[in-house]
Amino acid sequence: MAFYINMRKTNVDNKAPMELFSDCSLIFEDGKPTLSCSLFESMRVDIDLTCSICLDTVFDAVSLYCGHIFCYMCCCKAASVIIVNGLEVASLEKKCPLCRREGVYPGAVHLEELNILLSESCPEEWEERRQLERLERIRQAKEHWDFQCRAFVGI
Question: Domain 2-153's class?
Fold first, then answer.
């Protein structure tokens, strides 16, 4: 859905494939984002874009194998992995924070179109969050490589 909303903003000649998602939109209600879409005039799909872990708008969004959407850093914390290693190395015993299903982290998918949509829809908040996340990623990377160097040297 985010892909089609992003495509509507561009000058695409052939908009026929997008007619299915013509009623899709990003809605901010009480500061909380929701991706909303009507399908076939009889069904409405609303996807809450609030991370259930940090309770903020998803940032660097990923969808777990079970379909739940979280921030990438929140997923890494929930899976007990460091950002440098990524979700691919998460243990299969680790569970989704919402549905408690096991083995959902290695199959996580980055939602790039959703990230683009959110960054363009609320640029000030996105930039502020990007700066905070960048500092945390640098801190974690520094800790990781300091540990690796000490382990290599035998300290």
Answer: alpha beta
Which residues have CB under 8 Å from 65's CB, separation 6+?
101, 103, 104, 105, 106, 107, 108
Q: Which of 2-16, 44-58, 63-77, 87-101 has the lowest mean pLDDT?
A: 2-16
Tokens representing residue 21 in the block: 């998602």
What pLDDT is stored for residue 153 in this prediction?
A: 86
Yes or no: say if 5 and 26 are a contact pair by the CB < 8 Å rule.
yes
The residue among 25, 93, 100, 16 whose CA lies nearest residue 66 is: 100
pLDDT value at residue 44: 81
Q: 12 pLDDT exceeds 60?
A: no
Domain boundaries, the chain: 2-153
Q: Which residue has the higher pLDDT, 118 or 14?
A: 118
Place of tokens 């940090």: 54
CA distance 61 to 66: 14
Give the closest residue to 68 by CA, choosing from 105, 116, 19.
105
Go through the chain and tell me how many residues it has.
155
Amino acid 81 reads: V
DSSP state of 98: T
Mean pLDDT of 105-123: 92
